[in-house]
Design goal:
The chain is mainly α and about 425 residues long. It has 17 helices and five strands. The strands form two sheets. It has a three-stranded antiparallel β-sheet with strand order 3-4-5. A two-stranded antiparallel ribbon has the order 1-2. Helix 5 runs antiparallel to helix 10. It is globular. It binds acetyl coenzyme *A. Acetyl coenzyme *A (ACO) binds next to loops.
Length: about 425
């Protein structure tokens, strides 16, 4: 019996099977050998929310949730947030190595020169109601890009894959800013090639009548850091959606739209919006104990707390908290910060949260920064989707290059009616 294996005895038959253990996992298909008789389909594993199922092999992002570690291609997130730029990190995630100066210059040039969108897309955006949620606009508009670039469907043409990657990374800020301007009833602002990736984004968001928009360097850097922190997070709900949809080989625009739709929900990227709503509802530090009680009684969740993977501390939350203080030096203190800080202090000392290993996640402080930057809450998830597009694309490209990749197709446990005959209308009770 090999040491790196699992011996399983099926008590239904008394038979013992040896299943190989590789990289701390067992191949789920090996369970299918376990049968009661020849007609039996074989054993499956049941894991409805993927709590303990590895769905791919990846070399992009490493997380050690118990020790609060997050690394992109082996580089600790803290070092990247401190020393790198978002576009450099994007290159790292997509191509596996930090770029040389020449590679970075070329990459920045390419992204900068793909930021414009087709004029028909602008007209398409005008069709949305004035109060449409920007995430709804973003998801639909990214999907619509698919119709502008029909060659993107050929996902086996790697030159095309490269071009669509650049287009998506470049155009997400433009579409996002247009979604915001549409909601505000403001004219769209076209990209400015003289500005950095985050600088151009704030230009397209906030430029009014001035001839040239000058982003505040501290806020520009803060935004760049937030983009770095949100760029990838291995196989979360939206990334798994990207891989799942991508596995049927559609073009990347519709796959990114699907991933963005997964991000939209309050359990995922919608959490930062929910945090600000929650802090606003609490309203005052004196109301916190009553709020905490209602959370402990299971009436509601403390938004921005808890994570499927991090059971120690979300390392991104620590960096966002520091960034928040830098931003408030420029914008003035967001009064919600006091409520957030006090909530964190109380929760980290409370048995309910401690025993369940619930700590602030990346979204606990990001929302109050976005609010201080003047963004409406409906834009918060959009701010997540922009950088996460890089992660989605890196994971999608990795999936495409995986030898023998196949369409993703989970199994089910059928619990419905057994075979029965059709009942004519007159006989139905
Ligand atoms: N507030 C209060 N209790 C919580 C919270 C919370 N935020 N999160 C988890 N719990 C409790 C659960 O009630 C449960 O308690 P129980 O064992 O007594 O039933 C226990 O902790 C485990 O919770 P699960 O829901 O099983 O944890 P899971 O890993 O499935 O969920 C999730 C993780 C969705 C992030 C959850 O913690 C949550 O809803 N948090 C709030 C939303 C949020 O901030 N999401 C952002 C995640 S980060 C991101 O997407 C970028």
């Amino acid at each position: 019996m090999g040491k790196d294996s699992l011996s399983v005895t099926d008590n239904r038959t008394g038979k013992t099977y040896e299943i190989p253990i590789q990289d701390g996992t067992i191949p789920a298909m090996d369970l299918r050998r376990i049968k009661v008789d020849d007609d039996d389909f074989g054993l499956m594993s049941y894991d409805s929310a993927y709590l303990n199922t590895a769905s791919c092999r990846s070399t992009i992002t490493y997380i050690d949730g118990d020790h609060g570690i997050l690394e992109y291609r082996g580089y600790p997130i803290e070092q990247l947030a401190e020393q790198s730029t978002f576009l450099e990190v994007a290159y790292l995630l997509l191509y596996g190595e930090l770029p040389t100066q020449d590679q970075l210059d070329r990459w920045v040039y390419d992204i900068t020169h793909h930021t414009m969108v087709h004029e028909n897309l602008r007209i398409f955006l005008d069709g949305f109601r004035y109060d449409a949620h920007p995430m709804g606009i973003l998801i639909s508009t990214v999907a619509a890009l698919s119709t502008f670039y029909p060659e993107a469907r050929n996902v086996n043409d790697w030159d095309s894959v490269e071009l669509q990657t650049q287009r998506l990374v470049a155009k997400m800020p433009t579409i996002s800013a247009f979604a915001y301007r549409h909601a505000m009833g403001l004219p769209y602002i076209y990209p400015d090639n003289d500005l950095s990736y985050p600088g151009n984004f704030v230009n397209m968001m906030f430029k009014m009548t001035e001839l040239k928009y000058k982003p505040n360097p501290i806020l520009e850097r803060a935004l760049d850091i937030l983009f770095i922190l949100h760029a990838d997070h291995e196989q979360n709900c939206s990334t798994s959606t990207m891989r799942m949809v991508g596995s049927s080989l559609p073009d990347p625009y519709v796959a990114v739209a699907a991933a963005a739709a997964a991000l939209y929900g309050p359990r995922h990227g919608g959490a930062n919006e929910a945090v600000v709503r929650m802090l606003t509802e609490i309203g005052d530090v004196k109301n916190i104990p009553e709020f905490i009680d209602s959370v402990k009684q299971g009436q509601r969740r403390l938004m921005g707390f808890g994570h499927r993977v991090y059971k120690n501390y979300d390392p991104r939350a620590r960096i966002v908290k520091e960034t928040a203080h830098e931003v408030f030096e420029v914008t003035g203190r967001n009064p919600l910060l006091d409520i957030a800080l006090e909530l964190e202090t109380i929760a980290l000392d409370d048995e309910y949260f401690v025993s369940r290993k619930l700590y602030p996640n990346v979204d606990f402080y990001s929302g109050i920064i976005y609010q201080a930057l003047g963004l409406p809450t409906t834009m918060f998830t959009v701010m997540f989707a922009i950088p996460r597009t890089v992660g989605w694309m890196a994971q999608w490209r990795e999936m495409l290059r995986e030898p023998g990749n196949r369409i993703a197709r989970p199994r089910q446990i059928y619990e419905g009616a057994t075979t029965r005959d059709y009942v004519p209308m007159a006989d139905r009770g």
